[in-house]
Amino acid sequence: MSPRPAGAGSAETGLGIPRARSGDGEDATLTDGVGSDGLRAGALRVKALLDRPLASYYLVLGCALLLLGAGLMMVFSASTAYDLDNGLPPYSVFEKQLLGAVVGLLLMWLAAKSPPRLFRRFAYPLLLGAIGGLVLVLLFGHEVYGAKRWLSIGGTQVQPSEFAKLALVVWGADVLARKEKLKQLTDWRHVLVPLLLAAGLMCMLVMIGKDLGTTFLLSVIFLALLWVIGAPGKLVIGMVALMLLALLLLIAVHPYEWARISSFLSSRSPRCRSTTCYQLAQGKDALGSGGVFGVGSGASRAKWGSVPNSTTDSIFAILGEELGLVGTLCVVVLYGGLAVAGLRIARRVPDTFARLCAGAITVWLTAQALVNMGAVLGLLPITGVPLPLISAGVSSLIVTMVAIGMLMSFARCEPDAAKALAASGPNRRRRLISWLGIGYPLR
Q1: How confident is the model at residue 341 (pLDDT cuts 50, 70, 90)?
Q2: Which phi-psi region, left, alpha or beta, contains residue 4 (left: φ > 0; alpha: ψ -120 to 50)?
Q3: Would you state the pLDDT for residue 382?
Q4: Exposure check for the chain: N or C terminus, fewer CB within 10 A?
Q5: What pairs with residue 156 in β-bridges?
Q6: How many CA atoms lie less than 13 Å away from 186 in the CB half-sphere?
Q7: Which H or E run contains 222?
Q8: Separation between Cα atoms, residue 90 and residue 56, nearest integer Å
């Protein structure tokens, strides 16, 4: 069969994907998802976009900014009632969150423009600073809701345990990258030492302050580093079992944490009268009362004293009430997009340090979001874990945005990303199109 000449019935879509041909030689229109041809064409379009240079970069940026916008809107709504209930000036919580978002955006931009080698220079200072901050919390911090997490610095509440997450990611990735370069990771002892010691010390300091949620997330980061570096399955399973045993022992000796777990287990009983049971019940009621489309932004009733911690731990319940099932699903999809982009960066980036950091950051943020949403849904016990980029809390917001900026920096190290960044055009619009790679022919 002779090849069909170019231009003789070889129509292409805007992305360069050949159109399907009907039996009589006329162009067959692409279906809107009905039929195998339409699904195949749609999948090819998505794959073509994801294969473009800097696709991961813009996916991370887009998901993060949308989540940040949703978070500011929800904090503005929920904090109006919180300010009145606590005798604070109007919009005081929102103003702090907005200031944290501005600082976070600046730090995110700086991190996105920085090379990965710059992060490695801060590995040990971050680790020492985080450990020092955790020690200061135990010595001079104040206890709120049964947990000692905050330091008061110049009238501002700072949570060092949030910075400990980022410190463990950067320092752990740096240590494992150095060991891999020296070809020392064939011995399991080099995989665990000193990573296990530092992670164990941080977990112990945080757990002494009765912060079960952050202890769990530090353990997740440690396991994520082992998973990304390719530790043997038996070693990972052994570490999971060891950490579960340690968490159970710590819960058993801490009455406050044990009360939360026991309240969660008995939360379905009508005789449960504890504060945790009340928060679980009210959170689920608020989440379900929104229906499909919600009661409208700012129209929540549960934020007026019904749901405890409506600006932090339970903000997902207020979001579900005001924005409904559609809004909650959009938030879940955005977290999913962030997770897909982060894992894609970890798979494509050539540098070991960047690969470890990207994988650990992605697992950390995804696990934190799942823990928060699972607690509101009543699937997990309440542990005081904020919803990334949405819950009120300046320390959590700034640390999360720095981590997002690091992901964007690693995305710039993907293959062909440097060429896309160096592309230029006569104006900003054409330069953006060139960066996205939309104008490049498919190969």
Answers
A1: very high
A2: beta
A3: 80
A4: N
A5: 153
A6: 4
A7: helix 212-229
A8: 39
Q: Specify the 3-state DSSP secondary structure of 375.
A: helix
Mean pLDDT of 411-415: 89
**Residue with structure tokens 């919580």?**
93
Structure tokens at 85: 């209930």
Q: pLDDT at position 283, please?
A: 81
CB neighbours of 205 closer than 8 A, spacing ≥ 6? 131, 134, 135, 137, 138
Q: What share of the chain is helix, strand, coil (3-state, %, to 5)?
A: 65, 5, 30
Peptide bond into 5 cis (omega under 30): no
The tokens describing 118, both together, are: 């710059």
Q: Are the CB atoms for 356 and 195 separated by under 8 Å? A: no
Q: How many other C-beta atoms are found inside a 10 Å radius of the C-beta of residue 23?
A: 6
CA-based end-to-end distance of the chain: 24
The residue among 388, 375, 403, 396 whose CA lies nearest residue 334 is: 388
Query: DSSP characters for 229-284?
Result: HT--HHHHHHHHHHHHHHHHHHHHH-HHHHHHHHHHHTTTSTT--SHHHHHHHHHH
- Cβ count within 10 A of residue 256: 13
- How far apart CA 434 and CA 421 sit, in angstroms, is 9
More confident residue, 49 or 76: 76
Paired residues of 153 in beta bridges? 156
Relative orientation angle of helices 315-348 and 352-376, to the nearest 10 degrees: 160
**What confidence tier does 433 reach under pLDDT thresholds 50, 70, 90?**
low
Q: How far apart are CA 392 and CA 93, in angstroms?
A: 8
**Contact (Cβ atoms closer than 8 angstroms) between residue 247 and residue 212:** yes
- The pTM assigned to this predicted structure is 0.84
145: pLDDT strictly greater than 70: no
CB 253, CB 274: distance < 8 Å: no
Closest CA to 98 of 68, 61, 66, 64: 68
pLDDT: which is higher, 219 or 48: 219
What's the burial of 166, exposed, middle or buried (CB within 10 Å: 0-12/13-18/19+)? buried
Buried b (16+ CB within 10 A) or exposed e, 45-78: eeebeeebbbbbbbbbbebbebbbebbbbbbbbb
* Structure-token pair, residue 239: 């570490």
